[in-house]
Write a structure and sequence with these properties.
The protein has a two-stranded antiparallel ribbon with strand order 1-2. It is globular. It has one domain. The chain has about 400 residues and is mainly α. The N and C termini lie far apart (about 50 Å). The chain is about 60% helix and about 0% strand. A hairpin with a 6-residue loop joins strand 1 and strand 2.
């Protein structure tokens, strides 16, 4: 008979927790009354993103503009002006199996897919049981945020961690496939290909990546032909370029503005951050160090969020996954490691939650930018560890040493 302790450390404990969480959030969101939005008619539901994803497949079939507003499709659930599709045509095609299902069933399966891919990635890290449990349970606040909004960020985080794991195993096709999938969900995943450069299979991986990217690009070709596919991408990039105003959310740019009143050019900040992020690639003699590769992977997960000027609360599961990858693979943790992790939990993960009064939540998240600052701090620590050669042996058993 299993004791309480054995149940907690059972391989199925986190699976059950995640499955129940996905089901609960889906049912809760599906049956919850929609919210009124000032200036709009109708209600906005928590799963508005899923509605947009689901309808994108039918728009692809009909050869319509995927990135336009469709009040006749969405108005029964949300005002069309409130949200539009911001993903690739390939993503719209991949959503076909869910689009064909009843709304509630599809929503639940979508949320389950996100949570279980993420959990599968955690388990594939082969951490000691206590650390695996910590990684899984401490992720729940951010999981709740992104899943409540039926977002894809949890899936992206899981796929990128899986890419890192399979690179460590010396694989070529699987890791580049996982990274490429994230690119066709959200473009910023393409930067994670930089991690491939740390591994001896990079000479095979980069051509494989180009082939996989091309294959995913042309998948929607039967639905409208080449000309329509190119037009889809023109419309896609036109929509994305429209997001590039000076408006900033929870990011390095937002933090600089909040703390220092400094509003530098966003492109300059992103370019500066990108240059810093690529500097560790110059230290090729350190590539054989497992911890160097782990910390570099963690730093990329954080970078993808903190240098995204449009990052929302629901995006932060990607950065927090990077924080946890850094923390739970440290061989000998010190008090300051745990102290920084506590700030991540208090401000990044729980800052937008109802444990704080609304006025204090606004101060933490919006005014003081304390949701993003702990992640910025850990990214800086990762950069210092990489550049100053302060890495320590990882406790993870999933990796095998790689030589440059």
């Amino acid at each position: 008979m299993l004791s309480g302790k054995n149940i907690i450390f059972s391989r199925w404990f986190l699976v059950a927790i995640y499955a129940l969480l996905a089901t609960f959030i889906s049912i809760r969101g599906y049956y919850a009354p929609g919210k009124d939005m000032p200036g709009f008619e109708g209600k906005v539901t928590a799963y508005n993103n899923y509605i947009v994803f689901s309808n994108s497949f039918y728009h692809l079939l009909d050869g319509k503009n995927l990135y336009a507003q469709y009040p006749e499709t969405h108005s029964f659930i949300c005002p069309a002006q409130y949200d539009v599709f911001k993903y690739s045509p390939t993503f719209a095609l991949f959503f076909a199996p869910l689009s064909l299902l009843p709304l509630g069933v599809g929503l639940t399966l979508w949320n389950l897919l996100n949570l279980l891919v993420f959990l599968f990635a955690i388990k594939k890290l082969k951490l000691p049981p206590v650390r695996e449990l910590g990684f899984g349970l401490l992720s729940i606040p951010e999981i709740f945020t992104t899943t409540t909004n039926s977002q894809s960020n949890l899936l992206i985080a899981g796929l990128l961690i899986l890419a890192y794991i399979h690179l460590e195993k010396g694989k070529t096709l699987l890791p580049v496939f996982f990274i490429a999938l994230t690119v066709f969900i959200k473009l910023f995943g393409i930067l994670f290909f930089a991690l491939v450069l740390l591994y001896p299979q990079r000479l095979k991986a980069l051509p494989a990546a180009a082939a996989v990217m091309l294959g995913l690009f042309v998948l929607p070709l039967p639905f409208g032909g080449w000309e329509r596919l190119i037009q889809h991408y023109r419309e896609y990039f036109g929509l994305i370029s429209g997001d590039h105003g000076f408006f900033v959310k929870y990011s390095v740019m937002g933090w600089l503005k909040s703390w220092f009143g400094w509003q530098p050019d966003k492109n300059g900040i992103v370019l500066g951050g990108l240059l810093l992020q690529f500097i560790p690639l110059l230290f090729w003699k350190r590539f054989s160090d497992r911890s160097f590769r782990t910390i570099y992977a963690a730093s990329w997960l954080i970078w993808l969020v903190i240098f995204n000027h449009m990052a929302e609360s629901a995006t932060f599961i990607i950065a927090v996954a990077g924080v946890f990858l850094w923390y739970f693979t440290i061989a000998e943790r010190k008090t300051w490691h745990t102290a920084i992790l506590v700030t991540v939990m208090i401000f990044t993960c729980l800052g937008p939650s109802d444990i704080y009064p609304k006025a204090l939540r606004m101060l933490i998240v919006e005014t003081w930018q304390l949701k993003v600052f702990p992640c910025i701090l850990i990214w800086m620590i990762c950069m210092y560890q990489l550049l100053a050669d302060k890495v320590k042996t990882s406790v993870s058993s999933a990796q095998t040493p790689a030589a440059p």
